[in-house]
Recover the amino acids of this structure.
């Protein structure tokens, strides 16, 4: 009985460490197989906004796609992954230069984790005098880590000039980051570095290149449905139509 009680207490403690509570600053959820989505939060102009990221557990260690937006969760994420999978994070890919994606380069690099970005991201971070990734990769690169093979791809400008996606062909998992809006998104969000016209072309490249994804992880909000790609495209097209209509009205 005492042993059973100990096991139950351990499971409760582990569950708490994974941030499953809605009030937790770090929330980890199982996607499929060895794929996990984690969510952190950041106060942006007085509003608490969530940011999604992903990690994959391989035989050679854990591959992380984007760092927590909340810097206080840099270490708790590593601790939670270690507790759950008994593995270390070995690689981190930053999918563009914004803080909610590349903000952890310095921290994780100092932990001995290999950090990666494309040249465009590196140049932006360099110009801003912000920490950069250790390794610069071509805009379309295939990696094999343990039992998993994936492609890191730059589709063109969109949410940011340097946004990339990651595609696991066998598992049909597309990690979109902020390049993809969630199905529940009502607008395109922050557009300070966006190129809306190019974004439409870039989305169509992804649709053409990566057929029928089963799971799509957007940068913010909830959901992992593949409908988010078409929804993103519609948001872009609606935005462009609205902008063009405003320009025509202003010319009359």
């Amino acid at each position: 009985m005492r042993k059973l009680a100990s096991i139950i207490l351990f499971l409760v403690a582990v569950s708490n460490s994974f941030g499953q509570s809605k009030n937790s600053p770090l929330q980890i959820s199982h996607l499929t197989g060895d794929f996990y989505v984690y969510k952190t939060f950041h106060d942006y102009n007085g509003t608490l906004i969530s940011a999604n990221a992903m990690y994959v557990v391989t035989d050679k260690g854990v591959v992380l796609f984007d760092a927590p937006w909340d810097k206080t969760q840099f270490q708790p994420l590593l601790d939670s992954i270690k507790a759950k999978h008994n593995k270390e994070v070995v690689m981190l890919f930053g999918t563009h230069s914004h803080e909610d994606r590349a903000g952890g380069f310095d921290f994780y690099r100092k932990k001995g984790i290999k950090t990666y970005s494309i040249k465009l991201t590196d140049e932006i971070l360099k110009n801003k005098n912000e920490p950069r990734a250790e390794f610069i990769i071509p805009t379309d690169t295939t990696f094999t880590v343990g039992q998993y093979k994936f492609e890191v791809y730059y589709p063109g400008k969109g949410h940011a000039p340097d946004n990339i996606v990651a595609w696991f062909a066998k598992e049909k998992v597309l990690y979109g980051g902020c390049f993809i809006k969630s199905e529940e998104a009502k607008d395109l969000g922050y557009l300070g570095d966006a190129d809306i016209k190019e974004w439409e072309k870039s989305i169509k490249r992804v649709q053409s290149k990566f057929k029928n994804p089963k799971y799509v992880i957007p940068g913010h909000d909830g959901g992992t449905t593949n409908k988010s790609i078409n929804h993103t495209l519609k948001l872009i097209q609606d935005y462009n139509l609205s902008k063009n209509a405003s320009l025509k009205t202003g010319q009359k």
